[in-house]
Amino acid sequence: MTAQKTKSTWQKIRKFFNDIHLWIGLGSGIIVILICLSGTLYVFNTELREMASPELYHVKYEKGAKPIAVEELITKVKESTGGKVASVKIPSDPGRSYQFMVRLKDKEEGSKDKAGSKDKSEVAKDKGRDKSGKGDKKDGKGKEGPAGGKRPSAFAVNQYTGEVLGNISASKTATASFMQTMFSLHRWLLLDKIEKPLIGELENRKLGSYISGTATILFTLGVITGMVIWFPQKIRAWKQGFKIKWSGSWKRKNHDLHNSLGMYSCIFLFLMGITGPQWSFPWYREALRKTLGTHVPEGAELPKDPISKLSSAGVKPLNITDFIAAADKALPYTGDYSISMPKDSTAAVAIMKNKTGFFAPSAGDKILLDQYDASVLKIEVFKDKPFNERVSGSIKALHLGDVYGMFTKIIYFFACLIATSLPITGTIIWLNKLKKKNKSKKKSMVKQPAL
User: What residue numbers bound the domain in which 265 lies?
Assistant: First the structure.
């Protein structure tokens, strides 16, 4: 009796979650397919863009060749672009070009950066939100940064010749255009391409963001309920849930593909789903930060960075080579550098250092140096941070799949591909059950004796 009662209770619970899973899937299926398909293709956005414009990212390197001093390159970039250099990215690979982030003047910003900066600006916007937990001051065309200023454009430079190779942010290739479309489909369902508002005065970009965000929340609930109904009634039968019976009928294979592939990828699908809506809903982003204990209330005073101490007259700042040497001593590993120029005579030099390689983590270590003597003012090693801060700082990486470089990108690519298939295989399962149920009803009606 007890065993039968337990079984009956589990069946009721399973049916409840199965009904939720079914209607969530049917209600959001089409949107989820579009979001997951575009997300699958966007996983390798950076790599595909580089393949389409190799002349911007790769330079000819001969063994023993030494790059030109960064200060001299900065001068060349200023002369070429007319803008102000905000930071420089120095790769550990000598065969890759340097990248200079340049704040262009209004006229140049419009002519050189408008065509290809929307996608990049949105990505930059997301990064800014990841660090602060807040949105930008202006949402819409993505032309203003978190502080309301113009977003810098990335210029590639050959560090051995001093040649400015081009504006990466305004690169016009078929691949760049396609990836920008995929980004728009993933974030706004292409509604940002429609100028006239579809609903009242609500911006189409926001409308698309709300729809995609809602579908993503439903998708996450679908993942959770799917894990519940997958759990076998008998513990010893759990292995069967990971197998696909290729010798079975097409209906059985479809059923196994939905169940097994869903379970193999459920952890990654959950991470994608739970992090995605923060770009659609401010309340979700705030709740996520509060849950992680990293929320910063609006208007709260943020901790100030230490300043350079030797700012007396006549003392000149050191050069970039000295700063890199100091950073190498504090962070003794091979990696890419991103060096932010000090804003004034008292500001520190901010350096981000990222490890490289197939399994390299996306999160970097930060170090602040005195611009006059390169002494370490502050150092933040990512792995030494509390777990909740590491998770909070990795939300974007957890969503995009580059938590551990190419290794996790490949995993996310296949997981996202599976996610694209789940609404299709799930709908087929429902249709098959519906047909079977209708056939059973017809048979029962035929067997009933005539009165």
Answer: 2-44+195-288+406-441
